[in-house]
Design goal:
It contains 3 helices and 7 strands; from the N terminus they run αββββαββαβ. The chain has about 170 residues and is of the alpha+beta class. It has one domain (about 15-150): OB fold (Dihydrolipoamide Acetyltransferase, E2P) (Beta Barrel). Strands 1-2-3-6-5 form a 5-stranded mixed β-barrel. A two-stranded antiparallel ribbon has the order 4-7. It holds the Pfam family SNase.
C-alpha cells in the first residue's frame, strides 16, 4: 500500500475498530520456541501468510524460569519450571536441538518437529492468545490436560496464582 492511501484509510479510523484477536481460531501451529511450561512461540498461517505469535496455555500455570531474586526456594522453583518446559516440549513433539528442515508435502504431518493443533480463546492480560494445544487434530486429550495431570503445574483460571510445589 502506498503512503497516501494508508493515511487516507487511517484518517477515518476511530476507537470502534475491535482489537485483533485469534479468539475461536483453530488450526495447525509450528512451535518455534518454548519459554516455560505455559508459554511458547509458534507460527500459524493466517490469510495465507505465516505469522508468529507468543501463546499462553489455558487452564494451568507453570513455575517461572526467572523468579525474583529474593524468592524462597528459588532454585526449586527454577527446577520445576525446567521440568514443566521439558514436559511441554515432549508432549508437543518439539525438539529445539533438531536441525531446521523446510517442510515438504511428502512429510507425514506427525513427523514435523513441533507441529500441533491449537484452539484459541481470548487474549490474556498481556495480549497473548490463550490456547488449548493438541499433539494432533482430533486427539481426545489436550497437552494442557496432560500437564495438569502430571502435577508439575498448577491449575490456573487467570486470577490469583498459587505457590508451586511438586505434586507427584
Amino acid at each position: 500500500m502506498n503512503c497516501c492511501f494508508t493515511k487516507r484509510i487511517l484518517s477515518g479510523v476511530d476507537d470502534s475498530i475491535p482489537v485483533f484477536s485469534l479468539n475461536n481460531y483453530e488450526g495447525y501451529a509450528k512451535i518455534t520456541s518454548v519459554y516455560d511450561g505455559d508459554t511458547f512461540k509458534a507460527v500459524i498461517i493466517l490469510h495465507g501468510r505465516p505469522l508468529k505469535f507468543t501463546f499462553r496455555t489455558i487452564g494451568y500455570d507453570s513455575a517461572e524460569m526467572k523468579p525474583s531474586l529474593g524468592m524462597r526456594a528459588r532454585a526449586d522453583h527454577i527446577h520445576l519450571a525446567r521440568l514443566a518446559r521439558d514436559m511441554f516440549k515432549e508432549e508437543c513433539g518439539f525438539d529445539d536441538r533438531a536441525p531446521f528442515r523446510l517442510w515438504n508435502p511428502f512429510m507425514c504431518r506427525n513427523k514435523v518437529n513441533g507441529l500441533v493443533w491449537i484452539e484459541c480463546g481470548k487474549n490474556d492480560k498481556y495480549g497473548r492468545p490463550l490456547v488449548t494445544v493438541y499433539r494432533r487434530k482430533g486427539d481426545k486429550q489436550s497437552v494442557n490436560q496432560k500437564m495438569i495431570e502430571s502435577g508439575i503445574v498448577n491449575v490456573y483460571d487467570g486470577k490469583k496464582k498459587d505457590s508451586f510445589s511438586l505434586k507427584i
